[in-house]
Amino acid sequence: MELLKRNIHMDRTRAEAVTQFTLEDDVNIPENKPDVSALNLEKGEIIIDEIKPSADSVTVRGRLAYAVLYHTMEAGSSLVVLEGRIPFEEKVNLQGAMPTDTVTVNGEVEDLTVGMINSRKLNIQALITMTAKVEELYDEEAPVALHGDEKVEYRHQPMEIAQIAICKNDIYRLKEEVVLPSNYPNIFQILWNTIALRDVEFKVMDEKLAVTGDVHMFVLYEGEGEDHPIRSFETTIPFSGMLECHGCREGMLPDIQYRLGQQELAVRPDFDGEERTIGIELVMDIGIRIYEEEKLEIISDIYGVSKEIEAVTHRAHLRRLLSKVTGKTKVTDHIRVSGGTVMQLMHSEGAVALEQQSTVENGILVQGSLQVKVMYITGEDEAPYGCTQAQIPYQYTLEVPGIMPEDMGDIRAEVEQLQVTMLDGEEMDVKAVLCFSTMVFQSVPVEFISDINVSELDSGKMSSLPGMVAYIVKAGDNLWNIGKKYYVPVENLRSLNGLESDELKAGQKLLIVKGG
To answer: Is the entire prediction scored with pTM above 0.70?
Structure first.
């Protein structure tokens, strides 16, 4: 007798670790750059150069690439950009990792602080959060049928499962051109830019993924002319496209993570030869996980009628989709500027810090802060530009009926809308909409039959069983366990006793005939 099995494709995180560390460096202003009068904006990005796994740990080498926008009182350009890198090497304890593993590492700049030591030296401090994972694919073998001549009884158990159909990493390249409005001066040089992706969505289609979203771009530049006027330009560019994805089909469940990777901005001449066109080339790094829901019937139990059948079982964990949920919450607050007066707002940007997540009754509680950064014009000659930052706390519950602590999924948090307006010369009003999304899978523990052993019936045991018996049903009894005890097919019990259903009541009498 042969037990026929079917592979169920699964994925799991075998090892994961999160660590935080700080980077700090004192940076001298290069000789070819003017003195620092006041600091305005800063940004930083973690670049991973090497990932070297070993037993229970991984060594990560990389660098913090930073940029600082500052104001100078020296003749010439009033705003100057300083760029640099701080290298690092960090050993992360990753229990269960092996030298042969493929480890993925993501580094995020949680906090970047730039301070003036003097007009020729800056202090750079950064708090880095690094996540290392070992993810793997594996198969569970589910028993689905029996093949053989022996007379056996078996029963099926219906299950709803979600198995992984596609697991890969890919990139999506995006190219756009933006022409400045006619009331803006030509570009002499770009001083600062901020690129963000918003409202990105992926839709599974046959053999491909449809990608849509918005690119939000802010550019601060020097205009052409003797005085090189400082101008800011901000716009949102919708985009859409297709990404080849062999094996996917409409109706599958996408669980896709993305981040903005390489980005390039270049000034190009327009049709009249004037420097008014900004070319954007972006790369989205995409982690693709696509799941397929399926109804499956497995053999959950078996017993012999003419032979002794022993089932060998093992514990397995499948999963089914509990919920794919998206939720939004509003955040409002006032920001007061200390020192100086706000004449005009130039630019605002926000990022969501997800600091804590926990399961509550029928939901996931997320807590953290909205980190807001605002650049503005002061109207003061010595420091015509200012920048203020604020952290606005939030708390929100994503509704997930029936969730248990072990069902927690990865949560993606984004700023969907951000609006900053002036109340007066010292206070600003902040309104934002934060969006949270996650896919929650429920773990389904199951005992799988992995093998069966067939042997002759024990003659002594069979002779001890009566040829015919009047059985009184006890609480918890069912036709299956009665038939299994007396080596009688369930159908025989049903027909001999004229049962129209498998429901039994305590105290009910059944006639059992051996071999009948």
So the answer is: yes
